[in-house]
Amino acid sequence: MTTVDHFVNGASFAGESTRTAPVYNPAAGTVSREVRLATTADVDAAVRAGREAFAEWAGASWAKRQGVLFTFRELLNARKGELAAILTNEHGKVTSDALGEVARGLEVVEFATSMPHLAKGEYSENVSTGVDVYSTRQPLGVVGIISPFNFPAMVPLWFFPIAIAAGNTVVLKPSEKDPSAAIWLAELFQEAGLPDGVFNVVHGDKEAVDALLHHDDIASISFVGSTPIAKYIYETASAAGKRVQALGGAKNHMLVLPDADLDLVADSAVNAGFGSAGERCMAISVVVAVEPVADELIEKIAQRMGTLTVGDGTRSCDMGPLITRQHRDTVAGYIDIAIEDGATVVVDGRGIDVDGDADGFWLGPTLIDNVSTDSRVYTDEIFGPVLSVVRVSSYDEGLALINASKYGNGTAIFTNDGGAARRFQRDAQVGMIGINVPIPVPVGYFSFGGWKDSLFGDTKAYGPDGVHFFTRQKAITSRWLDPSHGGVNLGFPQN
Ligand code: NAD
Fold first, then answer.
1. Same structural domain for residues 151 and 292?
2. 55: domain CATH number?
3. What span, in angstroms and rounded, lies between the C-alpha atoms of 372 and 390?
C-alpha cells in the first residue's frame, strides 16, 4: 500500500503521526493508497519551514519571483495530462472534466504572473510642501489554505499562485479524500525553481486544521468547503486574529422564464446539473420553471439525460462516480426523501448501467419534479447528480425563492428579455449571476465567491480580491529636508 506523505521544506515528510486515512479509487470502489493525518507537531514543522523561507522569498526581486511563476506555468501546461490522470483516479471525474479543472487553475497562475503590476502602489507628490505620500503592498507571511475534495487541483490553484507570487509562503491542507494532486503541484513548483519551504503541504483532518487555525505564525486562512465547517473556520481563525476568507456550500437555482429558448435551457441544465456528478459548488441543483414551460422543459431535459453515459472516467463517459460509498448512499437517500415528500421522480439514477467496475460508487443522473420548498431535497445541499424542478407562476415568485435561500453562491436566468435579465442581475441576492450561462464562474482576472452562507469574510477568491487578501497595504509619508523648511508647528500641515 502506497502512503501519501506530507511535503515540507522541499521534500517528502512523514512526520510523527501514526494515523492514516484510506484514499479510494471511486470508479473501482477500492482503496488505492493511504494518506498520513498530521499531528499538531507535524503542522508546526510545516509552518516553521514556511517561516524560515519567508524573509528570503519576500525579499526576492519581482523579476526573480515572476521567473519562477512563468516556469511553473509552462511546466503545468505541458504536463497537465499527468495531473488530470491523478484527479480522475482519486476523485473520479472524467478525463475531459479533469482537464477543464486544470485549465481553470492555469488561468489563476497566468493572472499571478502579472503580480508586479497588480501589487503596484500609488504616489502623490507634494501633498504638503515638500512632502510626498506613497503606498506599497507587502506579503503577509505564512498563509494557510484548506481545500475540499471536489476540486483537488483548481481550488488550491485559486490561492497559492497569488499568495506565492506576492511573496508569501504557504502551508496547504488539501482534502484527505484526494490528496495526491496537491503533492504533485508542490513538487512541480519546486521543479520550476521555488526555494525550499515556500510551498508546504500537510495532509490531515480536524487535528491538522485546528493546528493551523491556532498557530501564531499563520497570518491568514483561505478555506473552501461545506458551510458548517466554513462558519467554524471563520469564527475560530478570526478570533485567533487572522485574516480569513471561508467559502462555503451552495444551492444554485436556474430561473427559466417562459420566453427562454428551451433547447438551450435543457442543454445547460443537463451540463450544469450532472457535470462532475453534481459535485460542484456551482452546479445547478434547482430549475425554477415559470409556467407554462415546465412540462415541455422536463421532457427535453429527460430526453437529454437518456443519452448520458456513466462510468470509469478513464473511458469515454459523460459522468463518473461519487467520491465515497457513504456520500453516494447519502445522495441516493434524497430520492427516497423526495418520494416520501410527494415529489415526482422523473428519472431515477439508482441501478443504472455503468461502463465500469460494479463496486464503484455509482449513481446515475436523477430528475425530480414538483419538489416542495419545505422538502430537504430542496433545502439541503445534496452535492450529487440530483436535479430538482420547482414550478412557479411568475418571475417575482421565482426571484423570491432564490432570495429566501440561505445560500448565495451562483444563480442563472434564462430569457430572451434583456429588461428581465437586467432586473435579475440587480435584484438577485447572490454573488455570481449567469445570464443564459448556467455556471457563471468568473474568469481568473475577476474574483470568485458567493454571498450569505456561501462566503464568510469580505474577500472573494483570486482576481483583484485575491491580491488584496494576500497583501497588506502600507502608506509612507516622506519629506526630504530642504533649506526652506523648519520651525515648530503643532497643527496639521495645511499648505
Ligand atoms: P468539507 O467541509 O467536508 O471539507 C473541507 C475541508 O475541511 C477539508 O480539507 C477537510 O479535511 C476539512 N474538514 C472537514 N471536517 C472538518 C472539521 N470538523 N474541522 C475542521 N476541518 C474539517 O467539504 P468537502 O466535502 O470536502 O467539499 C464539498 C463542499 O465544499 C460542498 O459543500 C461544496 O459546496 C463546498 N465547496 C464550495 C466552494 C465555493 O467556492 N464556495 C467550492 C468548492 C466546494
1. no
2. 3.40.605.10
3. 7
Cα distance between residue 177 and residue 230, in whole Å? 18
Instruction: Tell me, yes or no, whether 421 and 336 share the same domain.
Output: yes
pLDDT at position 485 is 60
Instruction: Give yes or no for a contact between 25 and 90, defined as CB atoms under 8 angstroms apart.
Output: yes
- Ligand 1: which of 6, 108, 226 to mutate, judged by most atoms within 8 Å of the beta carbon? 226
Residue ranges lining ligand 1, Cβ < 6 Å: 146-151, 155, 173, 175-176, 205-206, 209, 224-226, 229, 247-250, 281, 381, 383, 409, 450, 454
Average pLDDT over residues 15-42: 97
Model pTM score: 0.97
- Number of structural domains in the chain: 2
Which of 35, 208, 281, 421 is an active site residue? 281
pLDDT at 488 exceeding the cut of 90: no
Please check whether residue 495 lies inside any domain of the structure. Answer: no
For residues 132 and 231, state if they share a domain: yes
Specify whether 281 is catalytic: yes
The pLDDT tens digits of the residues spanning 112-129 come to: 999 999 999 999 999 999
Residues 329 and 411 in one domain: yes
Asked if the structure places residue 492 within a domain, the reply is no
Domain of residue 300: give its range.
Answer: 252-435
Same domain, yes or no, for 139 and 258?
A: no
Cell numbers linked to 18: 501514526
Round to whole Å and give the CA distance between 203 and 443.
Answer: 29
Q: Is 153 found in the same domain as 52? A: yes
Close Cβ partners of 36 (under 8 Å, ≥ 6 residues apart): 3, 4, 5, 6, 14, 15, 17, 19, 20, 42, 203, 204
Each residue of 333-372: pLDDT tens digit? Answer: 999 999 999 999 999 999 899 999 999 999 999 999 999 9
Question: In the predicted model, is pLDDT for residue 233 greater than 70?
Answer: yes
Looking at the structure, do residues 368 and 321 belong to the same domain, yes or no?
A: yes
